[in-house]
Structure formats: C-alpha cells, structure tokens
Amino acid sequence: MRLIYYTSLLLGIILFTFILFHVIPADPARIMLGPNADESQVKIVRKELGLDNPLHLQFRNFLYKTITFDFGRSYIDGRTIYEEVLSKFKVSLFLVLLATFFIFLYSIAIVLIGVRFYPIVDKINFLFISTPTFFSGVIIAIFVFLFYPFTSFSGAIHSIADILYLLPPAFILALYPMAILARILKQEIEKINKSTFITAARAFGFSETQIRLRHSIRNALVPFIAALSNQLPMLFTGAFIIEIIFSIPGVGSLLIKSILHKDFPMLEAVVILNGLQFIGINLMFEFLYPVIDPRIRSADAH
Amino acid sequence: MRINGYILNCAAFLIVLLFMTVIIEYLPLHDPIKIDMDMRFSAPNLQNLLGTDDLGRDVLSRVAHGFSTTMQVSIIAMVSSLVIGILSGGIAGYFYRTWIDGVFNWIVSLLFSLPFLLVMAAVLSITKPDIVNAYIILSCIMWVGPARIARAEVIKTKNLQYVLASRAMGFPEKKILLTIVMPVTVKSAFTFSISYLPEIIGLEAGLSFLGLGIQPPYPGLGKMIFDGLDYIYSAWWLAFTPAVALFIIVMSINLFVSWSGKKEMELIGR
Amino acid sequence: MKKIRVTKSLIICFGLFFVFSCSKKDFSVVNQFVIGVSSETERLNPITIKDPQTYPIAWQIYEGLIRLNEDGKIVPGLAESWDTGDNKVWTFKIRKGVQFHNSDIFDSSKKTRTITAEDVIYSYTRFCSPESYPSFVIADSIKGCGDYNAGKAKTVEGLKALDEYTFQIELNKPEPFFINRITSPWISIFPKESEIENVKDKWGLIIAVGTGPYKLVSKTDNEVILVKNENYWDKNRTPKIERLVYRVIKNDQIRFAELNNGKIDLMVLPNQLFSSVFEQDGKVKDKIKEKFNFNVIGTFNTHLIGINMKKLPDLHLRRAIFYGSNREEMVQKILYGYGDIIAGAVPPGMNGYAPLVVNPYNPELAKQELKKSTYKGKAIELLVHELSNSEQIGQIFQKQMSDIGIKIKLAKVDFNSAIGRMIKGDAELFSMFAEVVFSSPEPLLLNLFSSTKIPAPNFWGYSNLSVDKKMDGLRNIAEKAVSVKTAAEIEKEIMEDVPANFLYRQKNVVVYSNKFRNLKINPHNQYMLEQLEKL
Description:
Chain A is built from 15 helices and no strands. Chain A has helices spanning about 1-25, 30-35, 40-50, 55-65, 80-115, 120-130, 135-145, 160-165, 165-195, 195-205, 210-240, 240-245, 250-260, 265-290, 295-300. Helix content of chain B is about 75%, strand content about 0%. Chain B has 10 helices and no strands. Chains in contact: A-B, A-C, B-C. The interface between A and C is large, with 50 and 54 residues.
C-alpha cells in the first residue's frame, strides 16, 4: 500500500519536474553559445539538444532515460549528470549528517539539563531561529577562519581534514532545525513531567536522571522524530546559502547554479534525486515509529 | 469565547504591526532611495543615525521602509496561505480515509519534496520578477504548513468523545462543525502560521539572491543584509543594522506567540 | 551514564590524536603560486569555455598562433612568422619542434607529438563548428567557416596546409586586421586525439593537453592544479614557478581573508572590496601596501547600457540619455577611478585607437534633446543583473536620468535571463558588458553594428546601409594608422544615432603577495605567469 503511494509520488515528481522545465522560457542553446553567436549556429545546437521535438516525444525519452538513471550530460559541462549529482549528494550527505550530530547533541543537552534552565533555553532557541543563515554563516565564517586549522576543502570527502572542514558550516545549518526540535522536545517534556506516571515514578524512588533519560525521552520521542523527519530532507537543498559561503560543492549550490544557467538536464536530475532522498528519509522514519513507540505498532499509520 | 480571545490577541498584534508600517511613511526620515555619491559609506553619525550605504542612502530610513514593505507583504502572504490552508486541510481532514484526503496528502507531499527555490524561480521567470508576484507564489507554497495542521486537528476533533456525544444527541452536523471543530482548527493553524511568519520574512532574502522579490532601488531587509555582507570589513553597519532589525521583529513575534500561548494555558487552567 | 561518559571522552581523545597525527597533505612546496578564484572552473575544453574566470587558467595550457605581450604588441606564438600579400590569404609558418604536453592520449611511446599544420587545421575547424562558443571570432571571416558553422558544409574551405609546417587561411573578403582576431588565445591549438572514443568524455575534465607553459595535473570542483611544462618550446619563457594552484573560494570576504593570511597569493579584487583596500580617492591603504603588490590592467572589455532601437525609436530621447549619463561620476565613485570612460564601443588605445568623442556629459544639452522628443514621462525599463556592478550602475543611471527628467524603472533578473530577453528584443534598456576578443577596432565595429548581425551581437538593432558600406571600406585600408583613424570617424557617425550608451572600459585590479614579483598580464587578461618569480 505504502509502496504504491510512494511510487506514485515519485512519478508525480518526475512529471511535475518535466512540465516545470518546459514552461520556463529559456533557451539552453543560446545560453551555451553566449550572446555573440549567430542565430543559425544556435538553431543547430538547439536541434542537437533535441529541444525541437514535440513535447510528448521529449517526455517519453525523458521518462525512459530517467528510469535507467541515464540523465545524460550537462549542458554546461558535458559531464555525466548522474555522477556529478551523486558526488554532490555525497558531500551534502556528510554535511547533513554532521548537522544531525549537532542537533542530537543539543537535544540531549536539553533533556539532561532539566526544567530549571528552560527559560534560558527558550531565549537561546529564539536566537537560533531568528538569525538568517547567510548572516550567521558569514559572521562565523570570517571569525572562525581566523584560527580554525581546517580551511580548505578538497572537493570531496577524502580525509578527516575534509570532514572537519565541514564542522562550522554543519553547525550553522543545524541552528534552525536544532532550535525548532528543541522547542518541541522541551514542550513535550514539560507536558510529560506534569503527567501522572512520572509522579508515580518519582514516588517509586527513581533518580531524577534516570527518569529524564528513560521515561521522559521515550514519550517525547515521537513528536520529536516526526518533526525531525520534516526538517531533515529540507537540509539537503536548503543548505545552498551555506554551501555558497563556504564553497562546499553540495546539492544546494548545484541547484542554484543550474537554475541560473538554465541547465535543464541537471535540474531535472537534481529534483528527481532529491525527491528520492525525500521519500527515502520518510520511509526510514516510518519504520522507526513502531520501533520507538510500541503503541503505534497496532494503530493504523495515517 | 476563550479561543476567540487568543485569535483576537494575535490579530491585534498583526494590526499593530501593519499600523506601524503605515506610520513609517509619515515619519521625518531621509529619502530611502535618494542617491548621494559624496556620502557613501559614512559610519553612523548625527546626520545619518545608522550611517549610509554604498550609494550614499540613509540606512535608518532604508531599514524602516524595508521593514514596512517586508512586513506588509509577509503578513498578506501569511494570511492568504492560512486561509487556503485551513480550507483545504479542513476539508481533507473531514473526509479522512476517503480519496479526497488521499489526493490532498499526495499533493502536499509533492510540494513538500520539491525545493521551493526551484518552483519560485521557475514560476517567476514566466511572470515579472516583482515583490508582489513573489509573495503570491509564496502563499501558494506556504499553504501546505497550515493545511497539514488543520487536517490533523479536524481528524482529532471529529472523533472526540464529546463530539460523538453531541452527534448522538442529535446536534446538526453543521452546528458541530462551526462551534467545535472550526475554532480549534483555526486556532492551531493560526498559531502555526504566526510562528512561521519569521520564516516567510527570511525567505525574502533567499529570493533576492536570485533577483526575485523587491526590485532595486527599493529596500528590503533580506536584500540589504545580503548586499551588506559584501562590505562587512569596511562598512559593518550595512549588514548589521537590517539583521538586527530582522532579529528584533522575529524575536518579538516569537515572544508574543509564546506569551499568548502561556496566557491561553493559564486561562484553560491546564 | 558514567560508562557512556567515559567512552565518549575516550573516543574524542582518540579522534583528536588521529587528526593531529595525520599530517596535512600540504606540499609546503618551495615553489608554488596559489590563486584564489571566485567560482568553479568550467570544463577546460577550448571550444566551450565562456567564463572569464576560466580563461586565465585555460590559457596556461593552450596557446594560439600569435599572442599579445604585456604592452599589447603582437608577438609570434606557435607561428614563427606570417605573411599576406592581398590581406585575403594569410600564410603562417608553424614553429618546428613544438611538442604537446605528455599524455596517454598519444599513441607513441614518447607520449607526445610535435605539432604540424594539420593540427592547426584541425583546431581551426573545430572552432568553426556549431558547438564552439568562440566561433563568432572567425565565422564570418574565414572562407567556408560560416557554412561549416551553420551545418551546411563538411569541412572549412579556407583552411589549407601548404606543407607540414605551413598553414594558410583564405578569407571571404580582405581584412588587414585579420591578425587582430586571433591574438587572443580564445582560438588555440589542441590535438585531434581529444576526440578519441575514451578520451572525449574526459576531455577538459581530467585531461587537457595543449602546448602551453603549464600542464594540467588535476581538476576538481574546488581546485585546479597545474604544473610546469619542462618541454616548453620557448626557452626564454620557461616558467620559474613549479606549481600553480587555483583554489575556489566563493565568498569574496573569505577569499580576501585568505589572501591576508597568506593562504593564497593572488586574487582579482572585486569591486565590493575596493572600499577595504582603497581610500576614497583611489590610493592604496597603507597597511595593504606593506604586504601586497598591485597590477592594474586596462582590458578591452567595456560596460554599457544597451538600447533596443525598435522599442525606443525616438532619436532625441536616445540622445538625451547619451548626454545625460555622467560617466565620470560612475567611474570615480563606484570604481574608485579604476576605469576609463568611453562614449563609443571601442576602448581607447586598442591598436592605437583614439576615439573622437570622449566625455559627452552635458545635462543642459540632454534636457534640450528631451524637449525635442516625444517623451511623456512613461517609465522606461532597465534590465540589471547580478554581475559586474550592474545593479549599482543601474541605480546611479536611474538617478542621473531622473535629474534630467527621464523616469527609469529597474528590473533585476539573473544574467542568463537578461541575455535571453535582450536577444529576444524584449528589453527596452539593458545593462551589459561586452567581452571584446579582438585587438583592433575594425572587427569590433563590424560585429556590433553591421546590419547583418541583428539580433546578435548587434543587440540594439542598428541598421544603416551607408555605415555598412563604410565599414566594409575598412577592408581596403592597409595602413594601420589610417584604418584606425577611419574607424574612429565611423564610430562617431554611429554614435550620433545612439544605438547604445557605452559607459566605461573595465580595469582589473590584481592584488598579490609581495613575496612574488614580475607579474605580467596582457590586455586580453592573459596572465604570463612563466615570468613570475618568487623572491
């Protein structure tokens, strides 16, 4: 049942992408050849790129190629699109993983800290939510680069130095989701703390830390994970500002570059693969829910 | 009753903000778009309280007008996305477990999975790149958030104990909808939207990166921050002041939301 | 709990140990030069390169038949001499013994090959092909190139090899200035092995073989590394610096910070950083002077506001725009004086060119012209984009126009959309910059103002048959000085119609560490790094 849902979603993404790009009034042939080229020259390249074919024919070719993961070659570069997008996804993946690491750190801190400090936590959360990424990004970039040793990125994850280079940008990427999730976590914990079974646990004599770690978390987890499953997929393409500031070749900056250059094959590949990533993460989380909360196992997933 | 009180509070807050944006036109500020090439990059001084920018324009005035434009359009976007969202989400939730709900979910997931920037760029390359157009399209994407919330609320309340009881007692469906389901739905969606307002404001900056949104020479907070970053070494006030302004706005919205929430909780006596 | 804490700290300790014991793969090589660039390098395929950021890198690898030295004089390159009798047939003597860079793409055991006239024919043919970005440089000029470019012929008729080392070009019509079309390495020589089956896909991405002073070692999205070509043909110009590293640092502020930290050695100063480096009058700030040297290059590139003559047919309105633009203000204020104002299409000094109109700014005259026009106050749309100060120039222009009574409305779009709309004829005014590849005014005027060149690159739609004839007449003037003077007169006549509002000629400011010296750059923006030395 779920499989049909997600497959149809994927098809929808593909169709939507295709329509979107054939609605944008842009001429990739002209962009490739620049403003100085003669119209006759542009016409030939347009034909070579298959931009002349009737729409349904183009879509048929497109669909067929997409299923075999053959996204063709970029208009700008001539590089095989699939390889390029994949390598950018790998970099973005590390960035997102590191950001998730920071998110977890912060969330665990919230849980351990206890209710007393929550007003301060509130203020910190507001701070994180309110600062626009490009601002915090550039400020941190400038100051961190003064003394942070890992300041060059080889373009792919080849060594530990590369991973460490990604730490400051990952931190900035994590600021907003970190705060959102912490807010939700905090609310849930407050709600739970006041509930009856926690009072019972206290009456039983469990230590405060034990209560926090074993009981509060378990119950607060579900909304937390739900919010996480919302935030995570957006971090891939949403990181473009950070990628631009720190010169990280990830999916976000690839997206922007392709939009500006009207590199349609690349854009289509990025959107579709991003859609796959979105579906993948959602599926992963869907399997996670019953594991965390046994109560959900029997209920019907909506 | 009490639920309406909360909405009234928030609505009042928004109206105050809108009022402020209108008043700005009448304040004795410098002309925000007057270029004076001899006065470029002046640091904050008595004449220009927040300094001047790279074309000699007064930063204080630009921040004020930028706040004004950004605020007006963001609130409009928020309200319109709220309305669309409540309607669509509510309907979907009401018809839970039927094909209407299925289609709704499908569309929502689709929109959610696409990078919004792409959709914006695509649509805006057809229409004129204009701040008004940008926000119309923004609300067409933003309605997803409140819609999801509305749907969840409707599903929850539809089958609550006392609703079932009311139905059993013979209350007409329409009355149940209006007095019980609707207010809760609207309230949740409203809360969500208001706390989303900062993000809508922040999105303007992402748009200005692509040249979509407020067109030069009119000031927009996001664009000012973005342009100011180029001069962060030599003229820090260019990026700093609009960022602080944005921060204050967002902060106050968030504070207001959480204050109302607390008041709400007190009143209910939870 | 305690167990977790202990394990966590152990892991962290381990990690740090690991990290600091792995020495960074830094060559800390004696002899390398690191250049900071602002965007990823394109594919290093001479046919497709279009980003001005990529040229300086590509031009270390690929060379043309001739080149310009830093003073703008033509100097032999891969051709040791050339001759023409009637300016219609040009014969080049190819230098003997020039070898391509070592590479596995070549069959022989020596992994290289000497270039011959065949290689030159191959390269020029490729440059005439439809997918070639620089084809406009030679497509109208060389016989058969235009047909090949439009897909109508299988080979280029005008390219011949008289013998192994003699290459001949036949033009459609005589052009005494033909030689100025190919001084830029836009047209360069590269091997036909670039099209072999398993090389084609990697060409420009991992493999790039030319004859230049540097060879490609590696190219990733973040860095391009070149290494000195030991077998470079010009023994007087063997590079002194072993390694060139081009590092991508997108954010201007961070790139500048890296320059200050000594992590990179050279960068081109973007206009946004002028305020950090120069005082208001254009002098270098003292603390910057201590560490850095500067090179200021007057390029051939010009900045302009193009006019769509169909949408603004009123000559008096156009003249009002022309006289009302205070170019001086733009250059002094935005560029801190690093630019030369121009009123016509040809940058001053190009091959001895001296424009007849220099600074037409005259607000009174502008207002008079405006009175004579039919302008009623409707806002005229000016397209601006995100590159090269377009937005700032647009805003100043808007103010200057409003001072004389013309209302301008700005519309910001991305650069590619701007070009699209400009060519479609959709824009009334558009802010553009012209990348000028030629080193003489005649081909430039022919390209921009011939009626056959509408809509590209004659973006304004200027059509004047008598001017067409006069420009054609330039083909018959053999003496350079006369030709250049005649070109200036023709340009003056064209500018009276105001097809476009030219503003200034671009000057690049290059900042580099004073640990190095002898940096030479020619007006095409070609870096002659083989002369660079480290102190």
